[in-house]
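Revision sheet: C-alpha coordinates.
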Amino acid sequence: MVNFWRHALAFPLILFFCSALIWAVAGVLSATLFFSLALSLRWVFFMRYLTALDHWLADPEACVVPNGTGLWESVFGRLNKMARLQREEREQSSAALRHLEQATSALPEGVVILDQSDRIEWCNPLAEQHFGLDGARDIGQQITYLARQPEFVQYLTVRDFSEPLVLRGARHDGLTLSIKLIAYSASKKLLISRDITSFERIETMRRDFVANVSHELRTPLTVVNGFVETLSDMPKLDNAMARRALHLMGEQTQRMERLVNDLLTLSKLDNALNALKEDTVQAPALLRTLYEEGLSLSAGKHVLRLEMESDCNLLGNIEELRSAFSNLISNAIRYTPQGGEIVLRWKECNGQPVFSVQDSGLGIAPHHIPRLTERFYRVDHSRSRETGGTGLGLAIVKHVTIRHQARLEITSEEGKGSTFSIVFPAKRRLSLPEENAD
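Predicted:
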Protein backbone atom coordinates (compact mmCIF):
# COMPACT_ATOMS: atom_id res chain seq x y z
CA MET A 1 0.00 0.00 0.00
CA VAL A 2 2.92 2.38 0.73
CA ASN A 3 4.41 1.69 -2.72
CA PHE A 4 1.02 2.36 -4.30
CA TRP A 5 0.74 5.84 -2.81
CA ARG A 6 4.40 6.59 -3.53
CA HIS A 7 3.88 5.78 -7.22
CA ALA A 8 0.54 7.59 -7.28
CA LEU A 9 1.92 10.86 -5.83
CA ALA A 10 5.33 10.87 -7.51
CA PHE A 11 4.15 11.93 -10.98
CA PRO A 12 1.92 14.88 -9.89
CA LEU A 13 4.70 16.26 -7.65
CA ILE A 14 7.39 15.97 -10.35
CA LEU A 15 5.03 17.48 -12.97
CA PHE A 16 4.16 20.40 -10.69
CA PHE A 17 7.83 21.05 -9.81
CA CYS A 18 9.00 20.92 -13.47
CA SER A 19 6.14 23.14 -14.67
CA ALA A 20 6.93 25.72 -11.98
CA LEU A 21 10.61 25.68 -12.91
CA ILE A 22 9.87 26.16 -16.65
CA TRP A 23 7.40 28.95 -15.79
CA ALA A 24 10.12 30.73 -13.85
CA VAL A 25 12.76 30.33 -16.60
CA ALA A 26 10.82 30.36 -19.91
CA GLY A 27 7.44 31.86 -19.09
CA VAL A 28 3.81 30.83 -18.85
CA LEU A 29 3.39 29.60 -22.45
CA SER A 30 6.30 27.17 -22.25
CA ALA A 31 5.12 25.87 -18.86
CA THR A 32 1.59 25.33 -20.24
CA LEU A 33 2.87 23.48 -23.30
CA PHE A 34 5.07 21.25 -21.12
CA PHE A 35 2.20 20.56 -18.73
CA SER A 36 -0.18 19.63 -21.59
CA LEU A 37 2.36 17.40 -23.31
CA ALA A 38 3.19 15.59 -20.06
CA LEU A 39 -0.52 14.96 -19.31
CA SER A 40 -1.06 13.68 -22.88
CA LEU A 41 1.82 11.24 -22.56
CA ARG A 42 0.50 10.17 -19.17
CA TRP A 43 -2.95 9.60 -20.69
CA VAL A 44 -1.48 7.46 -23.49
CA PHE A 45 0.47 5.51 -20.86
CA PHE A 46 -2.69 4.87 -18.83
CA MET A 47 -4.75 3.93 -21.90
CA ARG A 48 -2.14 1.37 -22.92
CA TYR A 49 -2.32 -0.36 -19.56
CA LEU A 50 -6.13 -0.05 -19.39
CA THR A 51 -6.33 -1.78 -22.79
CA ALA A 52 -4.04 -4.54 -21.54
CA LEU A 53 -6.18 -4.92 -18.41
CA ASP A 54 -9.38 -5.07 -20.47
CA HIS A 55 -7.85 -7.70 -22.73
CA TRP A 56 -6.92 -9.81 -19.70
CA LEU A 57 -10.37 -9.42 -18.07
CA ALA A 58 -12.03 -10.62 -21.29
CA ASP A 59 -10.39 -14.05 -20.88
CA PRO A 60 -8.42 -14.36 -17.63
CA GLU A 61 -8.01 -18.13 -18.08
CA ALA A 62 -6.21 -17.92 -21.45
CA CYS A 63 -4.26 -14.70 -20.90
CA VAL A 64 -1.58 -13.88 -18.35
CA VAL A 65 -1.71 -10.81 -16.17
CA PRO A 66 0.12 -8.00 -18.06
CA ASN A 67 3.32 -6.43 -16.75
CA GLY A 68 3.43 -2.77 -15.80
CA THR A 69 5.59 -0.05 -14.36
CA GLY A 70 5.05 2.46 -11.65
CA LEU A 71 1.52 2.53 -10.28
CA TRP A 72 0.43 -0.24 -12.68
CA GLU A 73 3.18 -2.54 -11.48
CA SER A 74 1.58 -2.59 -8.04
CA VAL A 75 -1.93 -3.11 -9.47
CA PHE A 76 -0.90 -5.88 -11.85
CA GLY A 77 1.18 -7.55 -9.14
CA ARG A 78 -1.82 -7.79 -6.82
CA LEU A 79 -4.05 -9.01 -9.64
CA ASN A 80 -1.52 -11.68 -10.50
CA LYS A 81 -1.44 -12.83 -6.87
CA MET A 82 -5.25 -12.95 -6.72
CA ALA A 83 -5.41 -14.89 -9.98
CA ARG A 84 -2.82 -17.38 -8.72
CA LEU A 85 -4.73 -17.91 -5.44
CA GLN A 86 -8.00 -18.40 -7.31
CA ARG A 87 -6.33 -20.87 -9.64
CA GLU A 88 -4.97 -22.86 -6.68
CA GLU A 89 -8.35 -22.83 -4.92
CA ARG A 90 -10.05 -23.94 -8.12
CA GLU A 91 -7.58 -26.79 -8.55
CA GLN A 92 -8.10 -27.84 -4.94
CA SER A 93 -11.89 -27.73 -5.39
CA SER A 94 -11.63 -29.74 -8.60
CA ALA A 95 -9.42 -32.30 -6.88
CA ALA A 96 -11.86 -32.54 -3.95
CA LEU A 97 -14.77 -32.94 -6.38
CA ARG A 98 -12.92 -35.69 -8.24
CA HIS A 99 -12.21 -37.48 -4.97
CA LEU A 100 -15.86 -37.13 -3.96
CA GLU A 101 -17.02 -38.52 -7.29
CA GLN A 102 -14.58 -41.42 -6.97
CA ALA A 103 -15.77 -42.14 -3.43
CA THR A 104 -19.44 -41.92 -4.48
CA SER A 105 -18.77 -44.17 -7.45
CA ALA A 106 -17.34 -46.77 -5.07
CA LEU A 107 -20.48 -46.82 -2.89
CA PRO A 108 -22.50 -50.07 -2.90
CA GLU A 109 -25.62 -47.98 -3.65
CA GLY A 110 -26.68 -46.06 -6.71
CA VAL A 111 -26.72 -42.29 -6.19
CA VAL A 112 -28.53 -39.71 -8.34
CA ILE A 113 -28.63 -35.97 -7.62
CA LEU A 114 -31.95 -34.41 -8.62
CA ASP A 115 -32.92 -30.74 -8.78
CA GLN A 116 -36.26 -29.29 -7.65
CA SER A 117 -37.90 -30.41 -10.92
CA ASP A 118 -36.54 -33.97 -10.58
CA ARG A 119 -34.01 -33.44 -13.36
CA ILE A 120 -30.76 -35.42 -13.20
CA GLU A 121 -27.70 -33.37 -12.25
CA TRP A 122 -25.29 -36.26 -11.63
CA CYS A 123 -25.30 -40.01 -11.11
CA ASN A 124 -22.74 -42.65 -10.21
CA PRO A 125 -22.06 -45.78 -12.33
CA LEU A 126 -24.19 -48.05 -10.13
CA ALA A 127 -27.21 -45.76 -10.59
CA GLU A 128 -26.64 -45.98 -14.33
CA GLN A 129 -26.94 -49.76 -14.05
CA HIS A 130 -30.00 -49.64 -11.78
CA PHE A 131 -32.02 -47.20 -13.91
CA GLY A 132 -30.44 -47.71 -17.33
CA LEU A 133 -29.00 -44.18 -17.39
CA ASP A 134 -26.13 -42.67 -19.36
CA GLY A 135 -24.17 -40.25 -17.17
CA ALA A 136 -23.04 -38.15 -20.13
CA ARG A 137 -26.21 -38.15 -22.21
CA ASP A 138 -28.98 -38.00 -19.60
CA ILE A 139 -27.79 -35.06 -17.48
CA GLY A 140 -30.63 -32.52 -17.37
CA GLN A 141 -33.29 -35.10 -18.24
CA GLN A 142 -36.37 -35.69 -16.09
CA ILE A 143 -35.79 -38.89 -14.11
CA THR A 144 -39.36 -40.05 -14.78
CA TYR A 145 -38.72 -39.89 -18.53
CA LEU A 146 -36.13 -42.63 -18.09
CA ALA A 147 -37.49 -44.65 -15.12
CA ARG A 148 -41.18 -44.93 -16.00
CA GLN A 149 -42.48 -47.51 -13.54
CA PRO A 150 -45.87 -46.24 -12.22
CA GLU A 151 -44.91 -46.93 -8.59
CA PHE A 152 -41.75 -44.85 -8.95
CA VAL A 153 -43.58 -41.97 -10.66
CA GLN A 154 -46.22 -41.98 -7.91
CA TYR A 155 -43.50 -42.07 -5.22
CA LEU A 156 -41.99 -38.88 -6.65
CA THR A 157 -45.40 -37.25 -7.13
CA VAL A 158 -46.75 -37.92 -3.63
CA ARG A 159 -43.50 -36.61 -2.05
CA ASP A 160 -43.83 -38.81 1.03
CA PHE A 161 -40.27 -40.06 1.44
CA SER A 162 -40.56 -41.33 5.03
CA GLU A 163 -40.43 -44.96 3.87
CA PRO A 164 -38.31 -46.47 1.09
CA LEU A 165 -39.96 -47.75 -2.09
CA VAL A 166 -39.39 -51.36 -3.15
CA LEU A 167 -39.37 -51.36 -6.94
CA ARG A 168 -39.72 -54.84 -8.40
CA GLY A 169 -38.86 -55.57 -12.00
CA ALA A 170 -36.97 -52.29 -12.35
CA ARG A 171 -35.39 -53.73 -15.51
CA HIS A 172 -36.06 -56.67 -17.78
CA ASP A 173 -33.62 -58.86 -15.82
CA GLY A 174 -35.93 -58.91 -12.79
CA LEU A 175 -33.91 -56.49 -10.67
CA THR A 176 -35.49 -55.49 -7.34
CA LEU A 177 -34.47 -52.12 -5.92
CA SER A 178 -35.00 -50.40 -2.60
CA ILE A 179 -35.25 -46.67 -3.34
CA LYS A 180 -34.95 -43.82 -0.85
CA LEU A 181 -35.17 -40.07 -1.54
CA ILE A 182 -33.42 -37.63 0.79
CA ALA A 183 -33.81 -33.85 0.55
CA TYR A 184 -30.53 -32.17 1.49
CA SER A 185 -31.23 -28.54 0.58
CA ALA A 186 -34.15 -26.35 -0.39
CA SER A 187 -34.14 -27.65 -3.96
CA LYS A 188 -31.86 -30.72 -4.15
CA LYS A 189 -32.58 -34.40 -3.51
CA LEU A 190 -30.47 -37.53 -3.32
CA LEU A 191 -32.00 -40.61 -4.94
CA ILE A 192 -30.35 -43.65 -3.38
CA SER A 193 -30.98 -47.11 -4.83
CA ARG A 194 -29.90 -50.48 -3.48
CA ASP A 195 -30.08 -53.84 -5.22
CA ILE A 196 -32.04 -56.15 -2.90
CA THR A 197 -32.78 -58.85 -5.45
CA SER A 198 -30.87 -61.50 -3.50
CA PHE A 199 -32.51 -60.46 -0.20
CA GLU A 200 -35.95 -60.63 -1.82
CA ARG A 201 -35.15 -64.07 -3.19
CA ILE A 202 -34.04 -65.29 0.23
CA GLU A 203 -37.13 -63.76 1.86
CA THR A 204 -39.36 -65.45 -0.72
CA MET A 205 -37.65 -68.77 -0.01
CA ARG A 206 -38.18 -68.24 3.72
CA ARG A 207 -41.86 -67.44 3.27
CA ASP A 208 -42.36 -70.42 0.99
CA PHE A 209 -40.55 -72.69 3.42
CA VAL A 210 -42.64 -71.54 6.39
CA ALA A 211 -45.87 -71.79 4.38
CA ASN A 212 -45.05 -75.25 3.00
CA VAL A 213 -43.87 -76.67 6.32
CA SER A 214 -46.89 -75.22 8.13
CA HIS A 215 -49.21 -76.63 5.50
CA GLU A 216 -47.59 -80.07 5.72
CA LEU A 217 -47.80 -80.05 9.53
CA ARG A 218 -51.50 -79.25 9.54
CA THR A 219 -52.69 -82.69 8.35
CA PRO A 220 -50.67 -84.88 10.78
CA LEU A 221 -51.57 -82.56 13.65
CA THR A 222 -55.24 -82.85 12.80
CA VAL A 223 -54.95 -86.64 12.74
CA VAL A 224 -53.03 -86.81 16.03
CA ASN A 225 -55.46 -84.41 17.71
CA GLY A 226 -58.41 -86.46 16.46
CA PHE A 227 -57.04 -89.69 17.92
CA VAL A 228 -56.18 -87.97 21.21
CA GLU A 229 -59.77 -86.72 21.52
CA THR A 230 -61.11 -90.16 20.64
CA LEU A 231 -58.93 -91.86 23.24
CA SER A 232 -59.84 -89.25 25.85
CA ASP A 233 -63.55 -89.95 25.34
CA MET A 234 -63.21 -93.72 25.75
CA PRO A 235 -65.43 -94.74 28.70
CA LYS A 236 -63.17 -97.59 29.92
CA LEU A 237 -60.04 -95.42 30.28
CA ASP A 238 -59.66 -95.65 34.08
CA ASN A 239 -55.94 -94.95 34.38
CA ALA A 240 -55.59 -91.42 35.82
CA MET A 241 -52.08 -91.04 34.45
CA ALA A 242 -53.21 -92.02 30.96
CA ARG A 243 -56.08 -89.54 31.09
CA ARG A 244 -53.71 -86.78 32.22
CA ALA A 245 -51.23 -87.67 29.49
CA LEU A 246 -53.97 -87.57 26.88
CA HIS A 247 -55.19 -84.22 28.25
CA LEU A 248 -51.71 -82.72 27.99
CA MET A 249 -51.23 -84.17 24.50
CA GLY A 250 -54.51 -82.60 23.45
CA GLU A 251 -53.51 -79.20 24.81
CA GLN A 252 -50.14 -79.28 23.05
CA THR A 253 -51.50 -80.45 19.71
CA GLN A 254 -54.11 -77.68 19.84
CA ARG A 255 -51.37 -75.20 20.63
CA MET A 256 -49.33 -76.48 17.68
CA GLU A 257 -52.40 -76.18 15.45
CA ARG A 258 -52.80 -72.53 16.51
CA LEU A 259 -49.12 -71.94 15.79
CA VAL A 260 -49.40 -73.52 12.34
CA ASN A 261 -52.52 -71.49 11.55
CA ASP A 262 -50.82 -68.26 12.65
CA LEU A 263 -47.75 -69.07 10.54
CA LEU A 264 -49.95 -69.68 7.51
CA THR A 265 -51.79 -66.41 8.15
CA LEU A 266 -48.52 -64.49 8.39
CA SER A 267 -47.19 -66.11 5.20
CA LYS A 268 -50.33 -65.03 3.38
CA LEU A 269 -50.07 -61.46 4.71
CA ASP A 270 -46.36 -61.37 3.84
CA ASN A 271 -46.92 -62.34 0.24
CA ALA A 272 -46.50 -59.24 -1.95
CA LEU A 273 -48.68 -60.85 -4.63
CA ASN A 274 -51.57 -61.17 -2.18
CA ALA A 275 -53.40 -57.93 -2.95
CA LEU A 276 -55.84 -56.59 -0.36
CA LYS A 277 -59.41 -57.49 -1.35
CA GLU A 278 -61.58 -54.70 -0.03
CA ASP A 279 -65.28 -54.62 0.68
CA THR A 280 -67.71 -53.00 3.08
CA VAL A 281 -67.12 -54.39 6.58
CA GLN A 282 -70.07 -54.11 8.94
CA ALA A 283 -67.87 -53.14 11.87
CA PRO A 284 -70.59 -52.99 14.59
CA ALA A 285 -71.88 -56.46 13.67
CA LEU A 286 -68.35 -57.87 13.52
CA LEU A 287 -67.49 -56.49 16.96
CA ARG A 288 -70.67 -57.91 18.51
CA THR A 289 -69.73 -61.33 17.14
CA LEU A 290 -66.17 -61.01 18.50
CA TYR A 291 -67.57 -59.86 21.83
CA GLU A 292 -69.64 -63.06 22.10
CA GLU A 293 -66.55 -65.12 21.21
CA GLY A 294 -64.59 -63.24 23.86
CA LEU A 295 -67.20 -64.07 26.49
CA SER A 296 -66.91 -67.74 25.53
CA LEU A 297 -63.09 -67.65 25.68
CA SER A 298 -63.11 -65.87 29.05
CA ALA A 299 -65.61 -68.40 30.45
CA GLY A 300 -66.82 -65.92 33.06
CA LYS A 301 -63.34 -65.23 34.47
CA HIS A 302 -63.34 -61.56 33.39
CA VAL A 303 -65.71 -58.64 33.10
CA LEU A 304 -66.08 -57.90 29.37
CA ARG A 305 -67.78 -54.76 28.09
CA LEU A 306 -68.51 -53.62 24.54
CA GLU A 307 -68.82 -49.85 24.08
CA MET A 308 -70.16 -48.80 20.67
CA GLU A 309 -69.54 -45.05 20.43
CA SER A 310 -69.89 -45.09 16.63
CA ASP A 311 -71.94 -47.07 14.15
CA CYS A 312 -69.78 -46.37 11.05
CA ASN A 313 -68.55 -49.17 8.80
CA LEU A 314 -65.11 -49.82 7.32
CA LEU A 315 -63.64 -50.34 3.88
CA GLY A 316 -61.37 -53.34 4.21
CA ASN A 317 -61.00 -57.10 4.27
CA ILE A 318 -63.32 -58.69 6.80
CA GLU A 319 -61.23 -61.84 7.32
CA GLU A 320 -58.02 -59.92 7.99
CA LEU A 321 -59.79 -57.44 10.29
CA ARG A 322 -61.50 -60.31 12.14
CA SER A 323 -58.09 -61.91 12.67
CA ALA A 324 -56.48 -58.67 13.94
CA PHE A 325 -59.39 -57.74 16.25
CA SER A 326 -59.67 -61.31 17.54
CA ASN A 327 -55.94 -61.45 18.36
CA LEU A 328 -56.14 -58.24 20.40
CA ILE A 329 -59.18 -59.54 22.31
CA SER A 330 -57.70 -63.00 22.99
CA ASN A 331 -54.40 -61.43 24.13
CA ALA A 332 -56.26 -59.22 26.60
CA ILE A 333 -58.15 -62.24 27.96
CA ARG A 334 -55.00 -64.38 28.23
CA TYR A 335 -52.89 -61.76 30.01
CA THR A 336 -55.52 -60.28 32.32
CA PRO A 337 -55.82 -61.97 35.73
CA GLN A 338 -59.12 -63.52 36.73
CA GLY A 339 -61.67 -60.89 37.80
CA GLY A 340 -60.05 -58.20 35.63
CA GLU A 341 -61.98 -55.89 33.32
CA ILE A 342 -61.66 -55.75 29.53
CA VAL A 343 -63.33 -53.05 27.43
CA LEU A 344 -63.82 -53.36 23.66
CA ARG A 345 -64.46 -49.95 22.16
CA TRP A 346 -65.48 -48.76 18.66
CA LYS A 347 -65.34 -44.99 18.22
CA GLU A 348 -64.28 -42.14 15.95
CA CYS A 349 -61.53 -39.62 16.61
CA ASN A 350 -61.29 -36.64 14.24
CA GLY A 351 -63.18 -38.59 11.61
CA GLN A 352 -60.90 -41.64 11.96
CA PRO A 353 -62.45 -44.98 13.02
CA VAL A 354 -60.70 -46.47 16.05
CA PHE A 355 -60.94 -49.97 17.51
CA SER A 356 -59.37 -50.39 20.94
CA VAL A 357 -59.03 -53.08 23.58
CA GLN A 358 -58.40 -51.86 27.11
CA ASP A 359 -57.56 -54.28 29.94
CA SER A 360 -56.73 -54.08 33.62
CA GLY A 361 -53.95 -56.64 33.36
CA LEU A 362 -50.35 -56.60 34.54
CA GLY A 363 -49.22 -53.96 32.08
CA ILE A 364 -46.04 -53.83 29.99
CA ALA A 365 -42.72 -52.13 30.77
CA PRO A 366 -41.93 -49.24 28.36
CA HIS A 367 -38.79 -50.87 26.94
CA HIS A 368 -40.81 -53.87 25.72
CA ILE A 369 -43.45 -51.89 23.80
CA PRO A 370 -41.40 -51.12 20.61
CA ARG A 371 -40.70 -54.85 20.14
CA LEU A 372 -44.13 -56.28 20.89
CA THR A 373 -45.03 -56.77 17.22
CA GLU A 374 -41.89 -58.78 16.45
CA ARG A 375 -42.48 -62.43 15.69
CA PHE A 376 -42.09 -64.70 18.72
CA TYR A 377 -41.07 -61.78 20.96
CA ARG A 378 -42.24 -62.48 24.50
CA VAL A 379 -42.29 -60.16 27.49
CA ASP A 380 -42.49 -63.12 29.87
CA HIS A 381 -41.70 -66.57 28.45
CA SER A 382 -43.14 -68.49 31.38
CA ARG A 383 -46.40 -66.55 31.32
CA SER A 384 -46.69 -67.09 27.55
CA ARG A 385 -46.35 -70.86 27.99
CA GLU A 386 -49.05 -70.84 30.66
CA THR A 387 -51.51 -68.89 28.52
CA GLY A 388 -50.83 -70.87 25.34
CA GLY A 389 -49.92 -67.89 23.18
CA THR A 390 -48.01 -68.45 19.93
CA GLY A 391 -46.05 -65.20 19.96
CA LEU A 392 -47.40 -64.30 16.52
CA GLY A 393 -50.68 -62.57 17.35
CA LEU A 394 -49.36 -59.01 17.45
CA ALA A 395 -47.23 -59.61 14.36
CA ILE A 396 -50.46 -60.52 12.53
CA VAL A 397 -52.13 -57.39 13.92
CA LYS A 398 -49.23 -55.26 12.68
CA HIS A 399 -49.39 -56.70 9.15
CA VAL A 400 -53.15 -56.27 8.89
CA THR A 401 -52.81 -52.72 10.20
CA ILE A 402 -50.19 -51.82 7.60
CA ARG A 403 -52.23 -53.37 4.78
CA HIS A 404 -55.16 -51.13 5.76
CA GLN A 405 -52.97 -47.98 5.97
CA ALA A 406 -53.79 -47.80 9.69
CA ARG A 407 -51.52 -47.49 12.70
CA LEU A 408 -51.24 -49.53 15.90
CA GLU A 409 -50.99 -47.49 19.11
CA ILE A 410 -49.98 -49.14 22.38
CA THR A 411 -50.16 -47.50 25.79
CA SER A 412 -49.43 -49.39 28.97
CA GLU A 413 -48.53 -48.90 32.60
CA GLU A 414 -47.17 -51.68 34.75
CA GLY A 415 -49.69 -52.80 37.35
CA LYS A 416 -52.56 -50.85 35.74
CA GLY A 417 -53.13 -52.45 32.36
CA SER A 418 -52.75 -51.75 28.65
CA THR A 419 -54.67 -50.31 25.71
CA PHE A 420 -54.15 -51.48 22.14
CA SER A 421 -55.74 -49.26 19.48
CA ILE A 422 -55.97 -49.56 15.70
CA VAL A 423 -56.52 -46.13 14.17
CA PHE A 424 -57.84 -46.28 10.60
CA PRO A 425 -57.48 -43.45 8.09
CA ALA A 426 -60.58 -41.32 7.51
CA LYS A 427 -60.79 -42.53 3.90
CA ARG A 428 -61.69 -46.02 5.17
CA ARG A 429 -64.70 -44.78 7.10
CA LEU A 430 -67.97 -45.69 5.39
CA SER A 431 -71.16 -43.88 6.34
CA LEU A 432 -74.41 -45.69 6.95
CA PRO A 433 -77.12 -45.40 4.28
CA GLU A 434 -79.14 -43.06 6.51
CA GLU A 435 -76.16 -40.71 6.81
CA ASN A 436 -75.77 -40.66 3.03
CA ALA A 437 -79.45 -39.93 2.65
CA ASP A 438 -79.16 -36.95 4.94
